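Our consortium's second objective concerns turning raw sequence data into structural hypotheses that experimental partners can test. To show how far this objective has progressed, the report includes one record in full. It was chosen at random from the queue rather than selected for favorable results. The single chain below, 192 residues long, was entered without modification.
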Amino acid sequence: MRMIQRLNPGPGLADFWTEFKRPNPYRWPVLGGSALLTGSLMFMLTDHAVSMNWLVGAVLALIGGVVLAAVLAEHVRIRIGVLAVAALMTSGLVYQFTRERVRIPPPPPEVTYISTFEQGRSDADIAASNLANQKEQDRLRADQKAREEKAKDAYRALGRATGIDVDAMERQIAREEAQDKKPDTAVAAQRD
């Protein structure tokens, strides 16, 4: 119970209010300046202080304007030396905050999808397009196979002209390809 009484903010707030009610010409400027500096320091401690937040800047400028108006309304005599020392101390503190550099990773790039197909195609249009594409691929494969067969015929003719037994070589190649395929089928059978 005694600890709660020691940490009770009630008496402190009552004492503050008693002092604040007194007719002191500096109370509003001091309160406004304190709010301005405290708000500025709290803003600098957040993650948003890396870039200028216009809403926070506007609120701080509004508080600064209220402080200036209160100083002018109360006809407060400003001592330039004391103001300069206070400004230098505050500037030094703020400068220490600004020297800290934090590297922020760049935002991820925006992906722009480029489509060669028109929007709103029906399923029938897609199927027809796929069928036409498949026919074109089949035609290209047949052309490629014909070119390969033509090249093989030219090599066979060259081999026969030079005295090489081309038929025996083709049988040997076919046996080697069959042996290469057998382990693959055996491995596939073991997996199943």
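The partners drew two points from this record. The first helix runs from residue 2 to 6. Helices lie at 2-6, 10-21, 27-44, 54-74, 80-98, 123-161, 166-191. Both points have been shared with the crystallography group to help prioritize constructs.
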